Structure formats: C-alpha cells, structure tokens
Amino acid sequence: xxxxxxxxxxxxxxxxxxxxxxxxxxxxxxxxxxxxxxxxxxxxxxxxxxxxxxxxxxxxxxxxxxxxxxxxxxxxxxxxxxxxxxxxxxxxxxxxxxxxxxxxxxxxxxxxxxxxxxxxxxxxxxxxxxxxxxxxxxxxxxxxxxxxxxxxxxxxxxxxxxxxxxxxxxxxxxxxxxxxxxxxxxxxxxxxxxxxxxxxxxxxxxxxxxxxxxxxxxxxxxxxxxxxxxxxxxxxxxxxxxxxxxxxxxxxxxxxxxxxxxxxxxxxxxxxxxxxxxxxxxxxxxxxxxxxxxxxxxxxxxxxxxxxxxxxxxxxxxxxxxxxxxxxxxxxxxxxxxxxxxxxxxxxxxxxxxxxxxxxxxxxxxxxxxxxxxxxxxxxxxxxxxxxxxxxxx
Length: 394
Prior knowledge:
The chain is of the alpha/beta class. It has helices spanning about 5-10, 45-55, 65-70, 75-80, 100-110, 125-130, 140-155, 175-185, 210-215, 230-240, 260-265, 280-295, 300-315, 320-325, 330-340; strands spanning about 25, 30, 35, 60-65, 90-95, 115-120, 160-165, 170, 175, 190-195, 225, 245-250.
C-alpha cells in the first residue's frame, strides 16, 4: 500500500487475526466476509449490486420494495424487485406498515421462488413516511411491529427474515431494545441497527455503543452494526468495539464499490490494496451506467446515474467542474465522451476516502401523526397505507 494512503486511513486498527471473525449465519445463509450492503432506495438496484459484487462477497440487499403495490402487481414495483441473471443469494428489502400486505407480499415472493432472504425496513426517517406512522415510527408501537414481523416470518417459511431499525425516534424515545426483543420472539434470523435516531438523520457520528448494548440484549440471533463505515478498517473496529456479528455498509460504498474488496482483504488478514486510479474509476462508472441502461433504458438510466457520477468523481482534482458537465449528460455516449478527457493516471486522493457521500442533512424534529404516542404500547392499528417508499435508507 502507498505510504501516503496508509498514513491517512485508519491504519492503527490491526488486521484480522486467524479465526478472529466467523461467517455470519442468517438462517441457512452463511455470509463471509460478514458484510451486508445496506438497502438504499434509488441506489441498490441490481446494476449497482452487480458492480459491488465484482469486488467481493457478502450479502447484497435490494432497494426498498413496498408491500402493497407489489401484491397489486404494479409494474414499477415489480421492476424494483428484479434480480440480475445468476444473482445469488437474492436478498430483498420489503417496506410495509400493514401485517396483511406484508404477509401477502412475502408469500408471493417466496411462492414464486424469487428470494433467498427478506429484510424488513423499520428505520426510514423521512418525514413523509413518519408523519403517517411508518418507517422508523413503527418500532414505537411494539405490538404493531410484532404483528408485521410475525406475518412476514410465517409467510416466509424457511426463507430467513431480518429487520433493520434505528435507535428510536429521538433520545427521549429509544425503541431499539424493543425491536430486538420482538425480532427474537417472532423468529427473525438477524437484526441490524443503524446507530442513530430518526431525529439525527445522518448527522454527527453513529453511536456504536448502542450496537454493543443491543448485542448484549439480543443473545439468540446475530446483531449487525450500521453507521460510519467509510474504510475497511472501520468494520474491524466496529466489530471489536461492539461485539457485533457483522457490518452493514451504506454510504461508504457510494462511488467506492471497491470498498467490498478492501473489506474482504482485511477480514482475511491482508492489507487492502491501493484504491484505483481515476482511469480505473471511470471504467467502473461507465460499466455501471451501461448496466443501468440495460435495466431501465438509456433516458431514465442517465438521470439515475447523475448522483453516482458525483460520488465516483468526488475528491479528484477539478472534480467540481467535471461534475457540472456530468450532470448534463443525456446518453451513455455523452458520458463516455466527458469522462474520456480525464487524466487516467491521476491517483485516488486518500483524503477523499472519508468525505461523506449520500444523505448528509442535519437533525430534524420527527413528524408523527397526531396522538400517535398516546397508547403506543398497546396500539397495534396499522397506519394509513403509504404507496411510495421513502427516498432514503434507514
């Protein structure tokens, strides 16, 4: 590894020792390295998953698919539930607020042989979702949460079901212990905690001590940690500090899919390789865009790729001007033309490794329905259905 790069990453964290970590068992799935791609709406479709998979093994979860429109057979939702040819294991995240529709969606997915793993999202903090009582609001009503999880587990049969959630609404209402208890009692195969509250959004540092606390409380199924893994060594540090069984990678892989290669290296006790030169990054980006075109059609794909082009180029010299041009491309050919002008030999700027990407908004006061918390411990009434899933991960 380059000495300059080594000086700027978390190199004080020792590499994994022989036998220090084990594959994480999620039902019948054995995941090694113990790494899961976080479901991110508008991001983790099969073209993005395909790019990430080329850099390393793990469990790669789809973007959120909403239960009710899936049951109703709406074309756009069915498209989001697609997997690439040969993609395995097929992991899908389901979003729902009503036990009936969640159960029916799971039965259909399993009955059609479409999935090998189902994750349920109870961590979305977006106001348009929480103000209706969905997403990260649901764990505040543990009986409703239990009903939804039970319907999914019963509908899944032998297919493992996991749930992902945040610490709670805010510091005055932490719900993650209840969520972990419900998961164990209702037969989930694992839980994942994003160590922030809904009020935090993506602000500040993730509070890994909450992951350690959940691991101490949840004894019978794996606990996965999520939050602020920007480099491979962060994953080792999280697992050592918290005792969690695996890590969930979200914003850290945006524009940096080779993070999964680095993760494979450090878990096998190897030094991670240098990040790619700008020319190699361009090749990855163009391949990603081409896969998006194959999946969604060129016009839609180019609009979808704009955020990715920003993430891929962020931190390189002159990237602000380059991104301004990339935001205007309308065809794959135009994208290739713009990127052909870069200095292919330019090294990856190591100081850009930890630059936040994706959602970076500050804190919020969480919007909830009027009277939502009045009888939260006994109320199991599903909230008004939300057709549109959140545009952010949990």
